[in-house]
Amino acid sequence: MRKKIVAGNWKMNKTAVEAFVLATEVAQLVKSDVPADVQVIMATPALYLTGVSQVVEGISNLAVAAQNCHEKASGAYTGEISAVQLASAAIPYVLIGHSERREYFSESNEQLALKVDAALANGITPIFCCGESLSLREGGNFLAFVADQLTASLFHLSAEEFGKVVIAYEPIWAIGTGLTASAGQAQEMHAHLRVHIAAKYGATIADDCSILYGGSCNAKNAQEIFAGPDVDGGLIGGASLIAADFITIAKSF
Ligand code: PEP
Question: Which residues surround ligand 1 with Cβ inside 6 Å?
Answer without folding.
Answer: 9, 170, 175-176, 214-217, 235-239
